User: Fold these one by one.
Assistant:
Number 1:
Amino acid sequence: MTRTRWIIFAVICTLILGGLVLLSKKDSVDVSSLDPSKAVSQTETAIGDHVYGDASSEVVLIEYGDFQCPGCGGAFPQLKAIKELYKDDIAFIFRNFPLTNIHPNALAAATAAEAAGLQGEDKFWRMHDVLFQNQDAWSGATTAQRTDVFAEYAKNIGLDVNKFKEDLSNKQVAAKISRDRAFGQKLGITGTPTLYIGNEKLSDEEITDLIQGSGEKLMDKLDAAIKATGGEPPTRP
């Protein structure tokens, strides 16, 4: 798919059914006491935020994403490169915001990523990457097909497949996704990808540059944020 089509789909993800992607009452989670700009720590009974890079960094980049959203898929290569370049200087957090009204397999994909994460933080990120890299292959899968597809990905990244399948119905996994979505609701998010540096939301222009361009606009902002904390940004290639 061309970059132009990626951005068209990204706009669709952002605008269509905006008011309808919010949490239903039965799925709502109270996050009123939590700061969306800070990482949520793991506990014995709850999955914490997945943090890539320096978890102690003052500079926190947060993505609210949908694994089936073409716009998120279009932004993925640039975001992956950026998080690798800045991993010693920032904390990157991915939060699930599946747009279930327009992406029927998005929630199942988020569940697969979180289930993988129960076998190690690195496994979450590997499944995260595999899902985006193979987005076209599973997006059209039927309900009957998708579990086998995701199980094959689990096998390929070295997971215990039986445990993975069991964890697809793990209550902690469902609660983690609900909390992520509740954070998005608290912030008024209606589409994906939506990104924040701390409390500052990236503009549409900056998101477009991630999908169609080089990601320079986001890197400029990260550099400024790092310098504001007294740090020195990494050298760009």
Number 2:
Amino acid sequence: MQESKSDKVRNKYEEIMEWASRRSIFYPSSEIYNGPAGFWNFGPYGEAIRRKIIELWRKEFVQKEDMLEIYGSQIMPNDVFKASTHLINFKDPVLECKKCRSKFKADELIGKRIGKNVSGLEEHELDKIIKNNNILCPKCNSYFNSVKFFNMMIKVNVGVSDKDCSLRPEACQSIFLDFIRMHKTMRVILPKGIAQVGRAFRNEISPRNSLIREVEFSQFEAEIFFNPKKINEVENFDEIGNYKLNIFRKNKIEKIEAKNLVKNNIVSGKLIAYYLSKIQQLYEKYGIPLEKMRFREVSKDERPFYSKETWDFEILTSLGWIEVIANNYRGDFDLKGHMEGSKKDLAVTENNEKFIPHIYEISGGVDRTFYVIIENAFKKEIVEKEERIFLDLIPQLSPYDTAIFPLVDKDKLPEKSKEIVKILKKSDFNVFYDPKDSVGRRYRRLDECGVKYIITVDYESLKKNDVTIRERNSMKQIRVKIKDLNNVLKEFLNGKDLNKLGKIIN
């Protein structure tokens, strides 16, 4: 029987999940207790990759764009979420099966059945669609109870305080509350980005697809505060004016220069076109092919209630197009809401003009970004009639800068290897040492985990004070003098070709 396209998609996803568990890249939280769905842990290799993903984001956005970085609390009083309207609007419609009691996100289930977006409809409207289209439980083919809305906030008890609190459902609220403090104490001149990386929590009805829809997840947030009258005053816009972005329009991807996004009124101004460009450039640096990226403008009916304009940045995966960054022009909604809720003045005065800043939001999913990078890097090939899996990560995302293997665990090779480990660690290289098992098996293990360069110490090393360096993808090797290792590794990690740094020996 021929394998269907859907089977191939599921098999690819399941294959990655099996590999991720086998190598402890990521895996369910509290698994020995069969913990609840939607919570995931990252093992040593996975966390190292994840940390480097964050560091590259930090370099490209926080450092190069001169943003301020904060770290906000994950627990906040409900007064915050009353002002932000999360207590009222942050809800999803739930369907419960009368027979098996399975629960589903109503708008998603209905949308798939009828091929139409039904987001934003009221309970009775969704019930009517279910009845008219005879939509039944996909698990047991039974009828549903009436649709009920479910608030996704996760409430918490804090000490003996009588103040109601919740876990934050998005990292941005911390930034909004801290804005006026930053403006005063950091001598801010607009436009200015304030950024943070942190955890957020959403009581998802049906967590699924591992890192794609979680209850607890990480975000990298950047909120750009600006004077709305100066949305087209962007200092470095000429640097990206001719850069082409993948814009999904009329059911196809068009390559449109950033300056033409502004000229043709596709976006509201230069500030938005500038940051969309920076996002696409970042994911190019992550190693995602351009043809797998797109910006899709979210319709008025589908986008968040607070947004004047929304662009979802999506990556093509075996599961379809996955949103990894939401780009929202939030206007003055947030600061106005918190001014009313806190009774504090959050307006600013610049050049004798007092105004409430507008906010442009870049809200990225760290875990989703991790998944799309991993899936794109996951490669298989047949080598000498055996399957080889390797993770084709860029050097900047490799969990270790290098690994060091003694050819065998005897004859003074381990001692020589440990000397080299000390030398490299003194130069701040992140080094993995593994003396056990056959060298071929050790290569395969670290190939699967994305380590790009592996150093092997053999018997010739004892005589000539040199080692071999093996490159992950090609599996080619060169010999390098131990005294030159520091410089050679730096060249490799900066993208230099193996062929240019030594003679290939296999």
